Amino acid sequence: MIKVAFVCVHNSCRSQMAEGLSRLLASDVFEAYSAGTEVKDNINSEAVEVIKELYDLDISLVQRPKLLAEIPAVDIVVTMGCNVECPYLPCRHREDWGLEDPSGQGHEKFVTTAKMIEAKVLDLKDRIAKGRI
Question: How does residue 39 score in pLDDT terms, banded at 50, 70 and 90?
Answer without folding.
Answer: confident
